[in-house]
Amino acid sequence: MTNNQSQMPKDQLDDWLEIGKIVSAQGLSGEVRVYPDSDFPERFEVPGKRWLLRPGATEPEPIELISGRYLDGKNLYVLKLAGVSDRTEAESLRGSKLMVAASDRPQLAEGEYYIPDLIGLQVYLQASGELVGTVVDVFPAGHDLLEVELESAFAGDKKQKTVLIPFVEAIAPVVDLQNRRVEIAPPPGLLEIND
Questions:
Q1: In sequence order, what are the residues at sequence separation of 6 or more whose Cβ sits closer than 8 angstroms to the Cβ of residue 119?
Q2: Residue 186 DSSP one-character state
Q3: Any domain includes 133
């Protein structure tokens, strides 16, 4: 980890990754509950500098993580942040986002992707090259699911304008981040939409 994070970039929030959102206070001693938006537990458990983006703010401010622990069964972390010593201060942080510098991303193994990198990718049929739609969200499941907003040629006049596509190599064999595209080889029926 480099130590150049003390100078916060002033240009865009594009330089930041959201790692979690403060959803409530925990107890009376200033701890906060955080819903994680990161697959890296060390983001919430290893002490050190993080950044806090308060609701309505345009720039994150530095904050020190003192300690953190995972709440089994709740998919939440409980964090102790420097300078937050009672429930009132903790409640004032509700809705704030925890951030890290985009340059602070851990290296991923081949075939692993960051969710924000997948949003906005165009989805094409591998066999025909036909544009299916655009990735608008990713849902974690046994295997992640890409929510794809369908092009009008696929959606037609149906009410349902999105489809969920399992993000597995057999169905999405080509992910080209540089060209912002995913190629899919869907099994029969996957793209069929019910009224």
A1: 135, 136, 137, 138
A2: P
A3: yes
Encode pLDDT of 91-137 as tens digits: 999 999 999 887 776 666 777 777 778 889 999 999 999 999 999 98
Question: Using one digit for the tens of pLDDT, what is the confidence trace for 39-62?
Answer: 778 889 999 999 999 999 888 999
Name the residue range of residue 24's domain. Answer: 4-104
Tokens of 69: 């622990």
For 175-188, how does the pLDDT look when each residue is reduced to its tens digit (9 = 90+)? 988 899 999 998 88
Residue 143: CATH number of its domain: 2.30.30.240
SS3 at position 161? coil
In a domain, 191, yes or no: no
The answer to whether residue 109 is domain-embedded is no
* 148: CB partners within 8 A, 6+ apart: 123, 132, 133, 134, 135, 136, 162, 163, 164, 165
Q: Is residue 90 a contact partner of residue 25, using CB atoms and an 8 Å limit?
A: yes
Residue 138 · residue 122 · CB < 8 Å: no
Residue among 35, 178, 191, 46 nearest 113 (CA): 178
Predicted TM-score (pTM) of this structure = 0.56
Residue 114, token pair as written in the block: 């960051």
Q: How far apart are CA 142 and CA 90, in angstroms?
A: 34
The share of the chain scoring above pLDDT 70, in percent, equals: 87
Tell which phi-psi region holds residue 79, choosing left (phi > 0), alpha (psi between -120 and 50) or beta. Answer: beta
